[in-house]
Amino acid sequence: MAFSEELKKYDWQQTTDAILSKTIADVDRALRKQRLTDDDFMALVSPAAAARLEEMAALSRMYTRQRFGNTIAMYIPMYITNSCTNSCVYCGFNRHNHFDRVVLTPSQIEEECKAIRSMAPFENLLLVTGENPKVAGTDYLEEALRTCRPYFNNLTIEVMPLKTEDYKRLTLSGLNGVVCFQETYNRAKYKTYHPAGMKSNFEWRLDGFDRMGQAGLHKIGMGVLIGLEDWRTDVTMMARHLSYLRRTYWRTRFSVNFPRMRPAAGGFQPNIVMTDRELAQLTFAFRIFDHDVDLSFSTRERPDFRDNMLSLGATSMSAGSKTDPGGYRVYPQSLEQFAVSDSRTPAEVAEAIRARGYEPVWKDWDKIFD
Ligand code: SF4
């Protein structure tokens, strides 16, 4: 069975109603538990839990320190193509947006590797592509991974969902982890945002996480895009998905990410705006629900917010990010996927981490483990 089958057990509206019906007594009960059910998670993301934000922050901080110590793992994304056959309505790389598409060659990818390494001692690289199987399929990804391998110890990709055998094949070229955003778990509304192309297939994307697990990937990253549907319901579905994946692929590590929509070419306006307090509540809720999950904050978020979260639940952060292919050296002016909010250099981010008594960790994996 794959998760798309399990998801059918959960009705979107009933889940929303259940979350909104939670009381402060439900929240307090959840906060007293060591192991939370998805019902407890719903209490922690409910409006009622806003009155317990300080207690949640203290618990989140405690669990994070117990499990991860005073460390923040550093990573950097490298966009290698913005070519895409999908038409996600919220994305600047949408195939209907007319601009010069870039597909980096292996030698250009190598130039980008050198540019990143000259900027900071990153060892965790996230390779990102649009979704175009013809120009950025498995062969292209394999070559990109082989090109990056000498420069970084830990390679993760954020690309179109692949077949199990393709994930397995890429692990032989150094692939360590995969990040994929389901964007929303609202099956009925999914096509509104993803009307055409491969990404319009809700089940193929959702069950991609099972294929990653079956391929034996070391780490799987997941997330929903905040700004599409009711965030409380979406993250509850994601918490259920995470629990399912943990039960089924217990050797794999997991990370979650809650990207809030940023301005992008095309001008799509978010349906939902999540406040900083709500994002903090969600972060604490996830940490209390799952003590071991890696909580990642990208440069989509503002410097002050990221600095505050690094001692309250965050465990990994990007820095110095460019969201355009070739943005570090080869094509500094190409179209970015979205505008970043934290434009500090990696050294400045590392300094801010140290100033809070935490240690930026550039290397937490060695090729020898692969
Ligand atoms: S979100 Fe990804 S798949 Fe959708 S248009 Fe943008 S790059 Fe393509």
Number of strands: 9
List the helices and strands in order.
HHHHHEHEHEHEHHHEHEHEHEHE
Give the low-confidence spans.
Answer: none
Spatial shape: globular
Ligand list? iron/sulfur cluster
Q: What's the Cα radius of gyration?
A: 20 Å
| Oligomeric nature of the chains | single chain
Describe this structure in words.
The chain is of the alpha/beta class and 370 residues long. 40% of the residues lie in helices and 14% in strands. It is built from 15 helices and nine strands. It has helices spanning 3-7, 12-20, 24-31, 38-45, 53-68, 106-119, 138-148, 164-171, 187-193, 202-206, 208-214, 231-248, 276-289, 303-309, 346-355; strands spanning 71-81, 124-129, 154-158, 175-183, 219-224, 253-257, 294-297, 316-318, 359-361. The chain has an eight-stranded parallel β-barrel with strand order 1-2-3-4-5-6-7-8, surrounded by six helices. Strand 7, helix 14 and strand 8 (316-318) form a beta-alpha-beta unit. Helix 4 (38-45) runs antiparallel to helix 12 (231-248), helix 4 runs antiparallel to helix 13 and helix 5 packs across helix 13. It is globular. The protein starts with a helix and ends in a 9-residue tail after the last strand. The mean pLDDT is 95. Iron/sulfur cluster (SF4) binds at residues 84, 86, 88, 91, 93-94, 130-131, 199.
